[in-house]
Amino acid sequence: MEDYAAKMLLKTDAALREYVTGHVQYREAAVLAAFDELRRRGQPAPEEEALRPGLEEAAAAQRALEEAAEAEREQAAVAADPSAAPTGPALYSPITIVLFSLPFTLLAGGTLLAINLWRLDRKRALLGLLLFIGAYMLAGALALQWALPRYGLSAWYGPLFNLPAILAYVLWFWPRYVGAVSYRNRSWLPPLLVCFALLFGIQKLNNYLMQKQPKEVREQLEKMMPK
Description:
The chain folds into 2 domains: 4-84, no CATH class; 90-188, no CATH class. The longest helix has 33 residues, at 48-80. The radius of gyration is 29 Å and the shape is elongated. The N and C termini lie far apart (60 Å). A two-stranded parallel ribbon has the order 1-2. The chain has 10 helices and 2 strands; from the N terminus they run H-H-H-H-E-H-H-H-H-E-H-H. Helix 3 packs across helix 4 (48-80) and helix 7 runs antiparallel to helix 8 (157-178). Helices cover 75% and strands 2% of the residues. The chain is mostly helical. Keywords: Membrane, Transmembrane, Transmembrane helix. The chain crosses the membrane at residues 91-118, 125-148, 154-175, 187-205.
């Protein structure tokens, strides 16, 4: 798209006024740029207040048409030459990392982020992530040990525990170690199936271990469970 703002910088005041008085002959974006340049020079056009809303609406519509046409051209180029398709490593997106961290705990999102760092060969970043997760889990265990005798179990512990780690994933690790790398979105279906399989296995194991406990212990554990 043409840079009308830069073009108007080179115009004389009279030429800018011509864009305004003859606005029907010019592209809406060009007239808007002329308005802006006149205002910058301390000579705002009296017609601007009446004309600007309609010009902005028409310019936005024209811009949308141009973007759609450009997208169609890119799709046609990819269809004609598959090698023109976007390239880059297949990575799990930040949204996928967040969505897996919420129901499946920070370990799931951390695992997806770790896979990304491995594929990008960010070994030092990967080590830093693993150390962060280990330290965070240790701090969480100590916090839980402190909270249980005072407040018992609560359904809020999980979300409160996961939130800082999720923020660290997307606001620290991703911008610092992945950044603006061009990548293809990796499918979230395989890790989702793995998470469900792990949850199923953990539930079965938990039920088995509960049945092995003496009755008094089982009753005590059931009382500690959040309602």
